[in-house]
Write a structure and sequence with these properties.
Blueprint: E1 2-3, E2 12-13, E3 16-18, E4 28-30, H1 43-49, E5 58-66, E6 72-80, E7 85-86, E8 92-94, H2 99-112, H3 122-125, H4 139-143, H5 160-165, H6 173-180, E9 192-193, H7 197-211, H8 215-227, E10 249-253, E11 259-263, E12 279-281, H9 282-293, H10 300-306, E13 308-310, E14 313-314, E15 328-332, E16 335-344, E17 347-353, E18 360-367, H11 377-386
Parallel strand pairs: 9-14
Antiparallel strand pairs: 1-2, 3-4, 4-13, 5-6, 5-18, 6-7, 8-12, 10-11, 15-16, 16-17, 17-18
Domain Beta-lactamase-related: 48-375
GO molecular function: hydrolase activity
Pfam families: Beta-lactamase
């Protein structure tokens, strides 16, 4: 029985081991889609999930559901708590770690083009980057979080006052990962799964090194232009969000015990970089996952990697792995979906779909506090509502 992430509850599911084409690939657990159990759209539950905004924890929310299984969209709260501007369903937002989907796709494209060997170590492509006492770290382990690379060690991850003071700073990707490489490797690569930005910032560095082009240039050429994603881009050092966009806010208590609600919409995203800097819209994210799952970005062999989970355990002992090479898999009310969550200060979002694209979900909310798991409770409520049959709330 494989473990899937918690969304208020945990569900078990059957798994089957599949073989990949590369000889050195670890055994992976393939999980099929469960569209047969897909419920009808629950309008009442979805409205309730985002009702009552703004409140003390979230200022605004938008939800977009598409696919042959039904359509639904809704917004709640304010895009600007000062002007009381309503949330725009077409607004831009920071997608945070959902960026990892795009990074993984581009690295897999390079493998498809035989410009990267996923079984070769990072040390081959970025000599001298990893400490000399680290073991060989296969490139594929960067994508499925089994690399063993330690986490980035920057106050951005846990200190609101630090990030406000340094919100416009530029960080080179090597500066970011070097903060992690001060520490010993967490485990032997390929043996355990532990989520980390370090792996994806490193993957972005490989992408740039092999292609000789910037991350932003690769994103345009490989994904956004071919798919016609006119509202998805990598901001480099630009701290702004284009209009329309919901403002992001951060609520915190300073060292003197005073509570603040600061506007953090403007922020340089060079720290997360290839792991979390992309800006997009709900419509563009819907199109991206639709075309990705339709096979328009990757061939059959690389597509297998998107829907296969390493047959390893989570490093914290919480159960079986649930990240593939680029995606995460969750199961809610018997519905299996694949996609990715993301968060930055003031923003939490995600995109998920059944493998057959019968149902696709994009959400973007504006939490005022950073949750321990990166996603506020309202996200859990949206996910449950999106998979709850209408009759259960009548």
């Amino acid at each position: 029985m494989a473990r899937v992430p918690r969304l208020n509850m945990i569900y078990g599911m059957r798994t089957a081991v599949v073989a990949l084409t590369t000889a050195a690939a670890v055994a992976l657990t393939a999980i099929p889609a469960a569209a047969a159990d897909l419920p009808a759209i629950n309008d009442k539950a979805l409205k309730a999930a985002i009702a009552g905004l703004p409140d003390g924890k979230t200022t605004g929310a938008l939800v977009r559901i598409t696919g042959s299984g039904g359509q639904w969209s809704g917004t709640s709260g304010y895009a600007d708590v000062v002007r009381h501007t309503p949330v725009n369903p077409d607004g831009y937002f920071r997608i945070g770690s959902t960026t990892k989907m795009y990074t993984a796709v581009m690295v897999l494209q390079l493998a498809q083009e035989h410009r990267i060997d996923l079984d070769q170590p990072v040390q081959r492509y970025l000599p001298g980057l990893l400490p000399a006492d680290y073991p060989p770290v296969p490139v594929y382990t960067l994508l499925d979080h089994t690399s063993g690379l330690p986490s980035v060690d920057i106050p951005d991850l846990y200190d609101p006052e630090w990030i406000l003071e340094h919100r416009y700073d530029h960080w080179d990707p090597k500066q970011v990962v070097d903060t992690a490489f001060r520490h010993p490797i967490d485990f032997q690569p390929g043996t355990t799964q532990k989520y980390t930005n370090t792996a994806y910032v490193t993957a972005g560095m490989i992408l740039e090194k092999v292609t000789g082009r910037s991350y932003a240039h690769n994103l345009r050429d490989r994904i956004t232009t071919p798919l016609g994603l006119c509202h998805t881009y990598y901001p480099n050092d630009d701290p702004h969000l284009p209009n329309p966009a919901a403002r992001g806010y951060l609520r915190y208590v300073d060292k003197y015990g005073k509570e603040h609600l600061d506007d953090v919409t403007e922020m340089n995203q060079s720290i997360p970089g290839a792991a979390g800097a992309i800006i997009s819209t709900a419509a563009d994210m819907d199109t991206f996952i639709d075309r990705l799952f339709d096979g328009q970005l990757l061939g059959p062999e690389m597509m297998k990697r998107l829907f296969a989970i390493p047959d390893v355990q989570m490093s914290d002992g919480s159960g079986h792995a649930y990240y593939s090479q680029g995606l995460m898999m969750i199961k809610v009310n018997n519905v299996v979906v694949w996609g990715k969550t993301g968060s930055r200060y003031g923003y939490a979002s995600g995109v998920f779909a059944t493998q057959d694209r019968t149902r696709k979900l994009v959400y973007a909310v504006n939490p005022t506090t950073k949750s321990p798991d990166g996603q506020p409770k309202i996200v859990h409520d949206i996910a449950i509502a999106a998979a709850t049959p209408p009759e259960s709330t009548e």
